[in-house]
Structures are given as structure tokens and as C-alpha cells.
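Exercise 7. Given the components listed, write out the predicted structure of the assembled complex. Treat all entries as one system.
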Amino acid sequence: MSATATAADSRPMIELRNVNKWYGEFHVLRDINLTVERGQKIVVCGPSGSGKSTMIRCINRLEEHQQGHIIVEGTELTGDLRNIDTVRREVGMVFQQFNLFPHLTVLENLTLAPIWVRKMPKKEAEEMAMYFLGRVKIPEQVHKYPGQLSGGQQQRVAIARSLCMKPKIMLFDEPTSALDPEMVKEVLDVMIELAREGMTMVCVTHEMGFARAVADSVIFMDKGEIVESAPPTEFFANPKSDRTKLFLSQILGH
Amino acid sequence: MSDAAATLKSLPQSGGFNNSPLAQWVKANLFPNWWSTVITLVLTYFILKFLFGALSWSLFNAVWSIEGTDTEVCRELKGIGACWALIAEKHRFILFGTYPFQEHWRPALLIVVFLVLYGLSTVRALWNYWLGVVWAAGLLSIGILMWGGVFGLRFVEQERWGGLPITLMLATFGIALAFPLGILLALGRRSDMPAIKAICVAYIELIRGVPLISLLFMASVMLPLFLPEGLTIDKLLRAQIAIILFAAAYLAEVVRGGLQAIPKGQYEAADALGLSYWKKTGFIVLPQALKIVIPPLVNTFIGLFKDTSLVLIIGIYDLLNAAKTSTIEPKWQGFSIEAYVFVSIIYFVFCFAMSKYSQKIEAELSHTHKH
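Answer.
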């Protein structure tokens, strides 16, 4: 993973260099180094409390890091609000709890940010929203409220909502963990399709089938550090560290 | 079970009435056993006695009019029948205070303007910028009506205003201005910026910690001492400002309760979409937070409506003060209960309407999106 090119096309989309973060005394991220190239799909896994969610939440500054550098598409995340705005325009995020806006219809959920952040005309924003709802295969739900949809449908709306901002990078924070088992597939199918189209993605997930299908690299985190990073075939066939082996045996063992 | 109760219980079973749903409900809820039966009978006795007393005082034995200026008829029936003749003679004074008698159509029209504005504002379909324009026009016409001095209307100085228009003005502007101020204070109290947070906390705690009466006194007596020579703000405006500042502190805490109920995920989703602080607040946080706190909000509004009556202590003739003053005349002395009942009904109508409207809007909002 080299990251020294200067041309916009070849520079990494996301770069984390020696990132450290503490919650009080608790050292939640330890010397994280990670480079994500354009179009790469990274799957991050690890036991709960390993810092994987915190790490991706640092990428769009929902969390602040205290040491090191995070550079997204050439913009370094600092306290500068303009930089944070720039990065958030390019980075979409999908949450474990969907976080749809319950007082707005599906259509309003999708068009709010394009209209008010991207200054897109309302009609154009609605056409785009319909396009992405078609892509996640629920165009018929457009006038419903989130509370009237199933979990799987809500999560697909959440993905469409992020896509409406035309992000260059998508972050997924355990997108299927809050879903009933029968709804996991419909969400993963949408994510796989998105991956195949070349979206740059960082996914925190324990769906190892998804990792095998699309990931360029699987990262295993434990106790705030990246323990292992390898392409999926190698990661699953030949895990190097004992911690990775133990983790894999726990999630794949049954 | 005692014999008496058993007898009581078996009594209604002899008729065909017994099978109707009403009879079954009555039996199940009012006479299920001997002690419930006793309680029902005792309470019924007191309720009927009270109702009969109230009706005979207010209707059957009431004096509706008097001949000439002699209130002797009323005095003879004092404590037995109400003297509504007072209202018949003084209702215009109670409603409009010392406003020039020939010009009473102006404050009367003002009340109509306010009622129309309230009515339009309750229709959610009309909630757009036109409503703002309508309100601006309404307020302008209210100013013209009350002051006059243009369009051939006689000028009426503010000292002569009184009655229901004063109450409606204090309450309407009180709610309309205290509400946004309260929202800003609530947001400020949750701000990351220490100075803003400290100012908001200090304001809320300070204002909440003193009685409204003391604020009104300060506004009326102390404020003019601090103003530069020659600059005066009229008494009504000073009272209005005191009411706004007071209500805002209470509303701020109500709104803060709603803000705290919004899950962190809503803020994060808005942040992740790149919404600025004000857009996040305006589109995502406040609509949800305010919906949650509709009951306590309306509670505070109703409280504010009635608190406007405290301006009587600084000598403003609002509805309650006008009612009190209406019985000062020797011939009407001793009939203040009638005057208070009359204005109580007016207060009740407005407060009950607010309560009903809040229930309606709550129901509407819960239909459109359930969590």
C-alpha cells in the first residue's frame, strides 16, 4: 500500500497515520495506520470494544482523534469546521440503528440533504431520490414514514439516503447487526451491488460471506489496534495471529 | 355480605330494565358491593346538592336586570341568587376597560381580529409564509384600531386601554415571543460553547427563581430609573417584556426536556449528511423535540395566559382588573363574585380551547409518524 502519488486519481481516498484516541484513561485507538485506495472495499472485524466502530466514526469526524493524521480525499480532518464539512460531503455513512428521521417521509429523508446541503432544486432531488429508491428496490415505499417499514427496508432507505449525496466513500457501521436474520440478505445484496460498481467502502461487519464476496482486504482489530490485515482468502485460510484465529473460530465455529 | 346490601343488589333484577347495557354498566361500576353502593349514594347526594345549589344561585334565583339604579333587589337576594344585572350593566366596562365608550367597536373588532388570527393559525395546511403576512397585517390593524389617530379614527392613549384586549395582547405577544426565545435559551443551555451555556443557565435559573410579580414591579418601578433622561417605555410594553422574559425561562426548560429525548443517532445522521448546526436543529431536532413536549408546552402557555392577570398589581386594566374595578361603585359593591364568575368563563373558554387544540394536533402528529 503505497501512498505517495500526488495526482488526484492515484492518491489514497482515506489515509490514517498513527491515529490515537482516548476516552478519558481508556486508550481506544492505538497507532492506527490504514490506507484505502480509490474503489477499495475494506471489511473491519473484531470483538466488541475493539475500537472498530470508533475508527470508522473518526473518518467522518463523528468522533475526534487526539493524535495522528486522518486525511480524506486530500483534506485533513482537524478542528477546522470547513474541512469537516468538505469531508462529510464526500463520505456517506450507514448506521447500525438506521437513524432515519422518523418525522419525515422516505422521500423527505432522501431529499433533505441534497436540497439543503448540495442546493439541488427540489424536483431534481426528488427524481434522484426515486432513482436510488429503485436501486435499493423499494420505490413503492416513497411516501411512507420510516416507522411503517421493516428493519431491512429502513436500512435500504438509509443506504439510499447516503447515496443521494453522491458520496465518493461509503462507511458502514455494522449495518446488519440490528436486523432480523431474514432481512440481512436484502441489505447485503444492495451493499454487494454497490461494491461491484466500484464504490470505495469501509464496512464494520461480522458478515464474513460479504467479506469473501467483495472485500479487497479484511482488517482484524482487537483492543484498539489493527492486529492483522490481509485479502479475504488469506485472512480466512491462514490467519497469522492467535487473536485472529480465536476470533474466527468464535464467529465461524458454529 | 349484609342483608341490606343483598336486598339492594337484588332490587333492580326485578325489572326488564335490568338487561340493558346501561343497567349492567351501572350495576358493575356503581353498585358492585355494599361499600361501593354506600360511596355512590353519598357522592350522588353531595353532587346533586351542589348542582342544585349552583343552579338555583346562578339561574333560578338570579336577578337578570334591575330597574333604574336601584340594586336593592339584588341585595335582598344576596347569597341566594346571583345578580347578573351587574354584568348586564357593566359588561362593556369589564370587556373594554376605560376605553372611550363611543369607540368600543374598536377593541371589539380587535377581539374579532385576534380570534380570526387564532383560527387561521390552527389550520396546519396554512402554515406557510402567508400566515406570517396575515399576522403582520392583523397586528398592524390591531395597532391602528387601538391607537387610532389615522383614517379619521380618534387617538386613544395607551393609559385608557383595558379589559379583554389587554389580556389577549399580553398573552398573544407573550406566547409568540417567549416561545422562540425559550427555544434559543434551551439550545444555548446545551451548547458546546461555555460562555453561551453559562449565560443561558444563569438567565434561566435567575428568572425562574423570582416571582413574576417581582419582575413586573421591577419593570414598572425600577426600569425607568435606569433609562436615560427623556426616554420612556410605556407601562404596558414594560409589563409585556417582563412576561416574555419570565415565560421564556420556563419554556426553555420544557423545550430542553424535548431536546434531551432525541436519540444521539439523529444528531449523528444529520452530521454525517453534512447538515449545518442550524439546519440540523431546524429540520431534524426541533420538529421531533417540540412534538414530544406539546403537553407541557401548552401547560406553560395556559399558565402564561392566566398569569397576564398579575399585571393588575402595577395598575394595568386587564380583564381581571377591569372586573374587580367594575364593582367599586357603591351601588355595586359586594357583587364581585358575579364579576369574577363572568371573567372566569372568558378565561376558561380561551384556556380550554388551547387544551383542545393541543390534543388535536398531538393526535394529528401521531397519525403521520409513529416511532
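Discussion: The radius of gyration of chain A is 18 Å. Chain A has a mean pLDDT of 90.
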